[in-house]
Amino acid sequence: MRWRNWGLQFLIVGAVLLALYGLATVVAAKMRGLGVEPGFGFLWQRAGFDIGDTQIAFDASHSYGRAFLVGLLNTVSVAAVAIVASLLLGGALGLGQLARNRLLARLCEAYVELFRNVPLLLQVLIVYVLLIGRLPLPHEAWSLGPDIWLSKSGLALPWPAFTDAGLILERPLLGRFTFSGGAMLTPEFLAVAAALTLFTAAYIAEVVRGSVQAVSQRQTEAALALGLNDMQTLRFVVVPQALRSMIPPLANQLLNLIKNSSLAVAVGYPDLVAVADTTLNQSGHAVECIAIIMAVYLTLSLITAALMGSWHGRLLRQQGGHA
Amino acid sequence: MKTALIAVVAIASALSFVPAHAGKTADAIRERGQLACGVSTGVAGFSAADSRGEWRGMDVDFCRALAAAVLKDPARVRWSPLTSQQRFTALQSGEIDILSRNTTWTLGRDAGQGLVYAGYMFIDGQGFLVHKRSGVSSAKQLNGAEICVQTGTTTEKNLAEFARAHHLKFKTLMFENLRAVLKAFFSGRCQAFTADASALASIRANDSGKPEGYVVLPDRISEEPLGPVVRRGDEDWFALVRWTLFALLEAEERGITQANVDEMRKSDDPAVQRLLGVSEDVGKPLGLDKEWVYRMLKAVGNYGELFERNVGPNSLLQLPRGINALPRDGGVMYSPPLR
């Protein structure tokens, strides 16, 4: 029985791979017919364009491949920031909806309804237009602390840098046009991170609320009867049980967030899709660029799903229950 | 219906580049009593309909000059506004007699598509639009600046090459959508916006809301020569269009304007007399009469006047004459002798 099962799965995987290979062959033949040589060799060619916001050194003399890496790192960093922030905000909003304080609960509910029901693209654009519209010019930047400046150019921060004198804290300095040195969180990055956070937090809040409500009311009553206070009941009794049913839908929300980060292209944040678009326009390798985008998002999603899955599995083993 | 017609015409023209009136374009225009002129769907200064529906611009004036030469009436033009996808098909299929619409002259278009360029109407180039308050007067002063670019063209590449050549460092902000990039630039997110200079001038005039707050820098970091295009296979018509352009330049060279053209007919200068048809007949080899240049100048003026009126420093676009000046003023707008 078990072997038959394995054999069947093997056949299905084989058929899928064969279909993909067939598709690739047809596409490649079609491209050759149009006079385009298919393949990923172009990734080693000189890119010839600059990217404004990079985590690693990049200029026009670097390759298309490195441009993709820059885009990937930008996607990952904006998604990572938004994941942490949306979990915190979403968790707080979810519990807030269940608060005994009516005003707080209604406010949290209103937040969820508002942000869940406005298209994300619109939210990204609104946040971006507000940021670049309301922030001051670099020369009139707001000071948010020693060497921290907020302006249309973004949030300039001191950042450690290696120099001849060793590791020093590099301060942002105002040049003729904008700040240089230190680290700069651009309005594009801030807009995408903020909009992803605000949007996803609304969904996470619902997941948290649902999971907490799914824990039997009697558990809370029993905990209170034992003399635990509200916070203790939540922390030691309710949340650990809610986590079990919370993690799978939470993983879905994180996957959505990662994929939604491709909306960055609307406000000029150089994420993977933006870099791929430029590369596609310049090199003409449209099929390959789209294939790279697909492969990267698939990989990121599978990694996230695997991490969340293993956390879930560990939790179930610890608590000795069933999913 | 119109789309279907264009599709049929496109397929037919793709199968063979046989023009509708081979060698007889000028005859067909006379028979029809109208010049069919392909223009843009609206690029201020080059070809755009004004608030009363009247077509205005350099490319438009050129078609009026042609109509004045061939049909003796600058008003006898039928305008066909064309998108960049439609423009070549419309010309190949014979729907229009001439494409007078900011179209860059490149080898691929001049040789491979059954088309031929008649000359330079306007030499454009990639430039920079900046906020006036920044006090920047040259692109080389933009070191360290944040520069907005719209992706999807060679613009980013030209910018990167310019930066390397002059050892400048830019922070490039790439946007997919024109509205987004304009929003970012006008809100002050970036200090400069780079695109074709004529497009920048048009954006400054029409989209900024406050043209005097913005400046198009004089630097050009690429070349985009624009010019009128005709079908291959009718050398007579090609020559007529080409020499119409040259005659407008020659008139500027000789100082003949719309205002003084009547007075200039009395000039003793043999070159002026020849041009205005007072002495020799320079129209005959082109299949035109003696006074064709006189009529053109009377209708639209010389090349310099076309430039000044539509795109020059005192027009809405405020473009400097630059490379589009006559050779004596440091430009490349040269006319071979009209004799």
Describe this structure in words.
The complex is a heterodimer of chains A (323) and B (339). Chain A is α+β, with helices and mostly antiparallel strands. Chain A is built from 9 helices and 8 strands. In chain A, strands 1-2-3-8 form a 4-stranded antiparallel β-sheet. Chain A has a two-stranded antiparallel ribbon with strand order 4-5. A two-stranded antiparallel ribbon of chain A has the order 6-7. The model of chain A has no long low-confidence stretch (mean pLDDT 89). In chain B, the strands form 5 sheets. Chain B has a 5-stranded mixed β-sheet, with helices on both faces. In chain B, strands 4-1-5 form a 3-stranded parallel β-sheet. Chain B has a two-stranded antiparallel ribbon with strand order 2-3. Chain B contains 13 helices and 14 strands. In chain B, strand 2 and strand 3 (55-56) form a beta hairpin. Helices cover 37% and strands 15% of the residues of chain B. Chains A and B meet through helix 4 and helix 8 of A and helix 6, strand 10 and helix 7 of B.
Describe the secondary structure blueprint for this structure:
The complex is a heterodimer of chains A (323) and B (339).
Chain A (H helix, E strand, L loop, with lengths): L1 H32 L30 H34 L4 H15 L3 H15 L7 E2 L5 E3 L2 E4 L1 E5 L2 E5 L2 E2 L4 E2 L2 E3 L1 H28 L2 H9 L4 H31 L11 H12 L2 H34 L4
Antiparallel strand pairs in A: 1-2, 2-3, 3-8, 4-5, 6-7
Helix pairs in contact in A: 2-3, 2-5, 2-8, 3-5, 4-5, 5-7, 6-7, 7-9, 8-9
Chain B lengths: L1 H14 L9 H8 L2 E5 L8 E2 L5 E2 L1 H14 L5 E5 L5 H6 L5 E2 L7 H6 L2 E3 L4 E3 L1 E6 L14 E5 L4 H11 L5 E5 L2 H9 L5 E5 H10 L7 E3 L7 E3 L2 E3 L3 H19 L7 H4 L5 H6 L16 H9 L2 H8 L29
Helix pairs in contact in B: 3-12
Work out the number of β strands of chain A. 8
Characterize the biggest β-sheet of chain A. Answer: 4 strands, antiparallel
What structural class results from the helix and strand content of chain A?
A: alpha+beta
Radius of gyration of chain A: 24 Å
Level of helix content of chain A? Answer: 55-70%
- Strand percentage of chain A lies at 5-15%
Please give the order of strands in the largest beta sheet of chain B. 10-9-11-8-12
Structure annotation, total helices of chain A = 9
Low-confidence stretches of chain B: 8-22
**How far apart are the first and last residues' alpha carbons of chain B, in Å?**
48 Å
The biggest beta sheet of chain B reads: 5 strands, mixed
Mean pLDDT of chain A: 89
Classify the oligomer. Answer: heterodimer
Morphology call of chain B: globular
Distance between the termini of chain A: 25 Å
Number of helices of chain B: 13
